Amino acid sequence: MIKKMQIAYVTYQDIHSVQAFQEQIVIAIKAPEETKLEVPAPKENCIEVRIKSTKGPIDVYLCEVEQENPGVKTFEDMGTLTSETKSAVPLDEEPREKASSAWEAAVTDSQLEQGAVEQTPREAVNSPTLEVFKKSLRTSHSSLEKMPRRARVTPKERVAQFGKDKFHTDGSVLFCTACSKAVDHIRKQTIVEHIESAKHKQNEKRQREDAETAGPSAALKKQGTVTMPFQSSTVAKDCCDTVTLDFFRMCLKADFPLHKMDLPVVRDFLSKHIKGGSAIPKSDQFYSHLPALFEEEKQRLLNDFEGNFIAVIADETADFQNRPVFNILFQVLKVRPPKHADIPAPQLVKTVCLGKVNHATISQALISCMVEFSIPLERILTFVTDSTSYMVKAWNDVLRNLWLNCVHICCYAHIVALAGNTWRDAFKQVDHFVALMKSLLVNAPACRARFLRYLNEQSVDSPTLPPKPVVTRWNTWFNCVKYHAQHYQLYHGFVEYERTEQGDTTVLRELASLLAVEDLHADLKYIAENCGRLVTALNILESQKRQIHKVYNTVLDLISWLEHLASSTDNAKGSMAAQSTADKLRQYNVKSKQPAIDFLRAVRALDPKQIGAVYTDYETVKPELKLSSECNMEWPVYLGLVKDGFIDVEDPIQFWMAVEDHVPKLAKYAVVLLQLTVNSVGVEKSFSKLGILFSAQHQSLTEENVAGMLQLYFNNPD
């Protein structure tokens, strides 16, 4: 025996029959069990309803219950999809052009039709009944537009009608004064029934008795809505949040440590001299405001990356707890770059705390970052890293198969800096002397002051402190040696003065011993006189100027000079240092060590001043630069422009922008490629910021806050 399925449903007529729903917009919700419904505090001109279900779809219906013209049907009159639905107007009537009824402001035709399809069983989607229903959605709105609408009575009019002693209003809601409750002002019968109720009469009697007891001068308490208090609170909170976020941005750009906000002197100053300064939270309360700033920065980056080419710069380091941290930076390459000669500043987009450091974790972090920022893989042009084995393996095994237009560049500045370390190995006494002077001066402010005073007493013009040698700042060691060579004659007297006046220490004794070595001064002078070409090459390779077309020649010239120096010098240590540096650079200047060597050789052809000295064969340049076939016809035109003398510009990008009308496709590629960086200086700087931000004093910061704050610090320099 087949049982007939019982269907429970509510029609529009059922809703219309309820008097309390007259001239109201009723929201009907059809949802599965355990559905959650939340109604947050109302905002100005907005009521928000949040519905969440984990067990199935949610259907929402808006039913406008009209009292007048009951013969006119709306789309809710059609009943449910299980009934035989008929059109309210002819099917060939033109769809409406403009929404006019209240529900149309909240729900569009497309949303309603989509909701209807979702509610229909899959096999019935194309049924005639559904087609009629969908047509009814369109046509019934036209009927609503033609329906005359009567102006609804206002709460103020009801107060005038029933008396100010019985009712009052705040402008939008009618309140019974005696009962201190809101009353529906739309229907007169509702108000009459309220007045005639026993509860109202009892409250009215108590109100008269209280008035007689308190006397005529007592103010009558009247109920009001919570709208205005909520609005005032919201305005105040928004203002406070704005001040807090602006103050936080200022701290980021000024490198002002947040933990200093807790100092009593800072709190007193803010409260006393800054209007609203006491509302600025302490450091531990700042972190609740960080997600808003992080989202704002992410949206800025997404807008900046959209439609542009990208260069990816990445590197890994360890934090103070020896945990691996992986930073990913993007360089935005625009077809219309600014006129200045600087390359686009890299932007920090992701800081990932890696559990393990290998090619798999590196690849996963990079691919995830591309997905998060919606970067089209064909728009990634270069991948700049150091030459560590896991970076090379990540490129060879994974990334090169995904980023088909990309070239892997091993940071040339890093390579030259590593090769330059052979000078430190060859001149060990000089290296030890530089380290001792750093130990003496860097962490001793009083000693630095005495050193400057001593130099001034020795008639040194505009005395300065020696540069601080830092391993990750690749030129600082050579610059420090040049400083010491210049001031060497003054060091013996200063060291003896310190030993006499401040007491003898291990550092001072070692410095005195080194200053007694005859070769030290000669070695300092030799390095200072012969490191100029190496320092200049490093400056070019780590520069933020447009230098990619100069890189290949710079490295070749440096190798040639080092080999010449090694064969011509009388200093044995200098000869060994120069030859070792040249040998290392030659080892890294091959395809296996520098994957981009052919690309860097070919990109010189985009410099009009070099095109004659290199090669003009387009078939050689095209595959290395990954130029499209659209450029085939424009290459001879470019050669002709160069031959005609159209190269009176220093910056090759300015040349390509000037000839854009003649070679539009080739100019587009050239402008983008000439903006590329060949170094990872940006990521090294981000690590320096990380060391400042996340030290042993800030262990309470979560990884998410560290990553977000580092992004804000790095991407928003002063």
Automatic annotation (TrEMBL):
One of its GO terms (cellular component) is nucleus. Keywords: DNA-binding, Transcription, Transcription regulation. Residues 650-709 form the HAT C-terminal dimerisation domain. Pfam families: Dimer_Tnp_hAT, E2F_CC-MB. Residues 196-211 have a biased composition (Basic and acidic residues). Coiled coil: none annotated. It comes from Alligator sinensis (Chinese alligator). The lineage of its organism: Eukaryota, Metazoa, Chordata, Craniata, Vertebrata. Belongs to the E2F/DP family. The keyword Transcription applies. This is Transcription factor E2F6 isoform X3. The gene is E2F6. Residues 6-64 form the E2F transcription factor CC-MB domain. GO terms for molecular function: double-stranded DNA binding; protein dimerization activity. GO terms for biological process: regulation of transcription by RNA polymerase II. Residues 196-219 are annotated as: Disordered. It comes from the Eukaryota.
